[in-house]
Amino acid sequence: MVLKLPPNVWFSSSVQLPFPNPSAEYLLTIFNATGDGLRADKAFQSFPDPYPKDDADLVPRPLAPFLRSRVLEHGTFGVSHTRVPTESRPGHVALIAGLYEDVSAVTTGWKLNPVNFDSVFNRSRHTYSWGSPDILPMFQLGAEPGKVDAFMYGAEEEDFSGDAVLLDIWVLDRVKALFVEAATNATLNAALRQDKLVFFLHLLGLDTNGHGHRPYSKEYLSNIQVVDQGVKDVTKLMEDFYNDGKTAFVFTADHGMSDYGSHGDGHPDNTRTPLIVWGSGVAKPVKHDGLAPGHDELSSDWGLDHIQRHDVAQADVAALMAYLVGLDFPVNSVGELPLSFLSGDIAAKSEAFLANARGILDMYRVKEEQKKATELRYRPFKALGDEEHSVEHRIAAIRALIDEGRHEEAIEETAALVNVGIAGLRYLQTYDWLFLRALITIGYLGWIAFALTTVIDLHVLHGKTETSRTLSGTIFFSSVLVLLYASFIVSKSPYTYYAYAIFPVVFWEEVYARRKALDEGRKALFGHITSAGGSVVLVLKAALGLGLMESLVSFTYL
User: Would you call the peptide bond into 137 cis, given omega within 30 degrees of 0 as the criterion?
Assistant: First the structure.
């Protein structure tokens, strides 16, 4: 993705807090490419040439030498850690919008927007994007009309049986064609020279080849070479076109790939992706004589031990790109600005980080007000619930530290505040979870009890007992349902809550009406047990039976 820097003042999306541009002499552009399905280890490890032509090609070497050169000499790198589900849609939403999409969107096939969302694309002056019809339309749909151009190949081109590298070649050729046309098209040339532009390349070949051939296949490894050469070519194209040293570049992936050619779960092969950032406004690599900070067993065979590794959460990439290009942070972004990736002095970083924190806390404030307006008795988030720990008090304290020039302390306090803000958002998101879990659990227990009464009535008592409803029982269960529904109406709860409430009430009312069957069934089945020893034997037999069933289930699963 390529982003063009704005003038010297940037603003946070929700608080409009100006802070200095750390690259004030630049009018920045940012280029971002995602290698869909690229694992972090495969991006940096050495392998023999997938298609060797001579003995020299059998010597292991990095398959992405250009990207590796950015790590060694030009920028900052690390691992971007994704969240479950490790799928293309939620991964790109996190990267570009800075939010972790609700997993319920899987019911739409991850292709439609259950709710439109803000993104770096929408905040840009204009975005040019190339890639898959599965990814690009959702960002075009969620943006202001005409702001995002999406150039896509047909869905039928995503063929898992062949070599999908052609998908990436298609994207790279179209990017080159755009800049070639700009040489003779004055209108396009002028448009491409505006600030705050985003160029996004979605490179799907690795994902498709990973599914079709596995991530250790020659097709997948060769595709890494093609992506590396393509990024190199487009980088040179951008630098030659702008010829001003004012472009920043971001290369990452939406998710990884298991050895079986799958993804979606939380296996580390699926959650760890490469992140390489270089260019204007980006910090140079931090080199050490010995083992640099950040490395672990994962990166032990990358040959990059002397370069400091900076890991981030996937949503942090959206905050990074927005800051580098001088855009407002996306409205619902929960990304934490990774300061270690930024050049510039510590004063600029502390200001930027505070703006980032205020955006997150504004989101918390709005959501809290919405929750207060619908709850009969709202329980505030304790970490932000009193005057001493209020958002205003904490921000004022950080502001004072910045004004006094104590920027390191300000950054530490801001990081703590960001964590509290995200925890507060989580608190509001899961505010009703205890109630819903209890309601659903009671419903399941009611269904089990209802099934048990039915079995006893039909197969033990042979249908001899009759249901016994009373006026008081009917009034009680009806009142419970009315009270639950009334609370849902007041709190403007989703329609699903009404379904959650009706099942436990109906099932337990039926159990109550068939209470005679339970009593008679107990006498018929266990009436012969009169001693404490007999009761103990019964309990032991039940436990043994449950253990046997559990072992059979576990054996079947294995």
Answer: no
CA-based nearest residue to 209, from 263, 272, 161: 161
Q: Judge contact between 200 and 121, C-beta under 8 A.
A: yes
User: CA 433 to CA 431: how far, in whole Å?
Assistant: 6
3 state SS of 146: coil
Long-range contacts of 372-376 (CB under 8 A, 24+ apart): 374/490, 374/491, 374/492, 375/491, 376/487, 376/490, 376/491
- Per DSSP, the residues of 209-220 read HHHHH-TTSHHH
CB 284 within 8 A of CB 251: no
| DSSP-assigned letter for residue 458 | I
Contacts of 537 (CB under 8 A, 6+ apart): none
Contact, 274 vs 38, CB < 8 A?
A: yes
Rounded to the nearest 10°, the torsion over CA 235, 236, 237, 242 is: 90
Task: Tell me the chain's radius of gyration from C-alpha atoms.
Answer: 29
pLDDT of residue 178: 96
Q: How far apart are CA 303 and CA 215, in angstroms?
A: 20
Cα(first)–Cα(last) distance of the chain, in Å? 44
Q: How many Å apart are CA 128 and CA 151, to the nearest integer?
A: 8
Phi, psi of 249 (to 5 degrees): -130, 140
Query: Which strand (E) or helix (H) includes residue 470?
Result: none
Pairing, β 197-203 against β 126-131 = parallel
Write out pLDDT tens, residues 430-473.
999 999 999 999 999 999 989 988 888 888 787 777 788 889 98
- Find tokens 């672990």 and name the residue: 296
Buried-exposed string 443-466: b where 16+ CB fall within 10 A, e elsewhere: beebbebbeebeebbeebeeeebe
- Give the distance between the most distant pair of CA atoms in the chain: 99
Alpha-carbon distance 426 to 420, whole Å?
10
Nearest to 172 by CA among 223, 246, 248: 223
User: What pTM value is reported for the model?
Assistant: 0.85
- Name the nearest CA neighbour of 453 among 508, 396, 388, 391: 508
Residues 196 and 4: their CA atoms lie apart, in Å, by 4
- For 41-98, the pLDDT digits (tens) are 999 999 999 999 999 999 999 999 999 999 999 999 999 999 999 999 899 999 999 9
Task: State the DSSP code for 72.
Answer: I
**108 pLDDT exceeds 60?**
no
Q: How many CA atoms lie within 13 A of 282 on its CB side?
A: 33
Closest by CA position to 235, among listed 43, 23, 67: 67
Phi, psi angles (nearest 5°) of residue 31: -110, 125
Closest of 20, 24, 18 to residue 5, by C-alpha: 24
Residue closest to 424 by CA, chosen among 486, 393, 380, 455: 380
